[in-house]
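Help wanted!
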Amino acid sequence: MATTFFRILKFGLQNFSRNGLLSATTTVIMVLAILVFNGLTIFGVISNSAVASLQDKIDISVYFKSAAPEDDIVKLEHALQSLSEVRAVEYISSEKALAIFKQNHDSDDTISQALAELQTNPLLASLNIKAKDPNMYPTIAGYLETDQLKPIIEKVTYGENKEAIDRLARIIDTVRVAGVGITIFLALVAVLVTFNTIRLAIYSNREELGVMRLVGASNKFINGPYVVAGVIYGLLAALAGIIVSTPLIVFISPYVHAFIPDLSLSAYLGSHVPQFVFYQLFFGVALGATSAAVAVRRYLKI
Amino acid sequence: MIAFNNVSKQYGDTAVLSDITFKVAPGEFISIVGKSGAGKSTIIKLLIGEDQPTRGRVLVGSYEVNKLKPDELPQLRRKVGIVFQDFKLLPTKTAYENIAFALEVEGRAQEEIEELVPQMLDLVGLADKKDNFPDELSGGMKQRVAIARAMIHRPAVIVADEPTGNLDHVNANEIMNLLLKINELGTTVVLATHSKDIVNKLRKRVVALENGKIIRDDARGNYEL
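Answered by r_m:
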């Protein structure tokens, strides 16, 4: 068993090294497929961050009447937190709202003087609510508009911002669907191009496969070396992909950061090195080995 | 022993072999002769399980070839050495590696391979060409490598399909002498050929085919159609 395994490994290495030009061409095509795979991964990270950043900007605020007891507001906060549609609820008391307002208008003397002349705090307590998905805001707004809550609620901003929220929700949905669509399409193209390249490489050896069969080689002895060669293509392509992609990602990182301030591709890469390496090796090896195994199968019927 | 019992082969409506019956005793040298299209190569294909008969039975030793499943064929082919007109060597392997391959697929130990292959290269006169690839060898040398590969696992039967078809007169004679020597050592040889000179020189058993039928089976025959 071990002897057979080592012989298959030896023949695979021989196939790779003695078909130099063919191996080099196949590896280059696989490098391109790996780069497409990396591009799709980075596109996924960027679009997810863009969507998350956009989503984070959407919220609805509930302003409470000045006479509304704080206990009722806290009860409503807890009730909202228990809703499955809600991601986060932040309570801003009227005092905190005033402090934030003062801080924001620190340099504006007119507003500072006007506030000083007022004897009471004109700002209302509020709850800032963020939904798990932008499409869930209508449900949350509906919950807040029940008759039971009317006595303590002054206004809900959803009505005022409905159009903007809906438009953002539509954009987010479109980005998600388009992202998945583009990823599937390009991944499929990369897989098919690689598969066909390996198939052509094996096609050029089809007579050799028949000879092996006639000499008494079993199927595993015939397709094993080609699968080994496929694994070598995949490993080399993944390594080349990592060597080419890493500086590229570092290079584009500041440009992406300017577009999405919450995202640093360099930092993302730094914190995902094992995944980055593993996925590429897995993608390369799985694609190379599977393509070779499938392509050889049709020549094993002699 | 090899036996063809009422074997017929049809491709669509065309009958290539019709009701073929003959036996080959162990250690025998038999030439199957006939014009192109007579059915010689089909008999060889049926013998090594490369094709299946439409009717009848093909027996090689204990194997009923027509009933073998694809995954059982390698076992048969390790018992039968095959030599082709176009050599069918593996182009990315050296002469040594081509011969060793037949033992490697059987799972033989490395030490045994390292002992047997040089002996076989010596026997076919190619010891100094062991590291050459097939495209660095002449036609005669390629065929000698093919015979060495067919012989290396000491099969009971050697099947040669037009082994001299691509060779000049001198090389053809050398190859035939090699096959005769192999036969003298006790190996059954089944030779398919349309070379009159070779068959007439052999003075061995001849089975003549015409239009897929046996028209003659002489114990010490000549090439006559």
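OP: Thanks! One thing I noticed: The longest helix of chain B spans residues 169-184.
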